[in-house]
Amino acid sequence: MKQGASSRGSPSSRRSKGVRLLGMGTVTLACVASVGRAAPATGGPPGEPALALAALDRRIADLDGEEQSDKEELARLAPQVSNSHARVLARGAAFYKMTRGGLLPVGGGFGALVTHAMHVERSRRLLAANVEEEMRLHARGALLARELERVARDRVALATQRTSMDAARLAMEDERRRQSAFDKAFETSTGAEYVAVYGGSGIAQDSTLAGFAGARGRLLFPVAGRAEVRPAHREGTDGPGLEIHASVGTVVRAAFAGRVAFSDRYGPYGRIVILDHGDHFYTVSGDLDEVDVKIGQDIGAGERLGTVGDDGQGPMLYFEVRHGSQTISPGPWLGL
Which of 230, 226, 207 is nearest to 336 (CA)? Predict the structure, then answer.
């Protein structure tokens, strides 16, 4: 195994995945402004996404009411259109009969002709009124049909928006849960003094060795085989860590016996395992591809925690040593 610390450049940092999740929620939730509702501000209180969702639900409910009203009016309009069309046909037939040349009252004299002309004009006006009414009803029906199409499109758009907003809200809640679990992982400790059992699967106690503190400089290197080691740190931490570059799928093992305090994905660390070694000493293994342990599980030194992953910055294991929540330089603990 080749191990070495690179002196090139300053400690690297990478963009937080947790920030990307929270950012996604902010952008998605902000789009509620497009439907005339207040959008939650970035970093606002947790209640704001719920208020935005409630506002969007009210908008969807308004669309439902609008659709129901249009459908009811369209249903009432159908018999009116039918009756209006029947009147137009009847008026048209009567007007046609009155204007036929063979039925003109020529033999009745001028008075009869004037009377007939008045009847024809009245029939024409009634027919025109009936035709206008039928056209108006048809136009109203066409408008209602277009309104229903618009409502359907708006509902689909709002439903998609709501799904995105709800997903963003759940993502933010999940990120807050992970943040809380991550912080709590460093708040308590088992109080036990573990010792490394190389190649073993159990955990032993030895009063002659002061647990993790007594293993300084003798921790098991967390990756077997060839690896390149570089100093680094992750966002949100002041102290140093190590980027241990190895092939994807390389087994990551426990540097010292302990109990799993955290096993999940967490922001800039990717998939991460935190081992509690007692007396408030912890090791942090991040950027894992697979995680093979669960919270509360007792792990012996050398036991498999997972495998090396690649989040786009190259395959590596990110490794930290902490005392409480304080990050301390891991190199001396590994004998580097």
Answer: 230
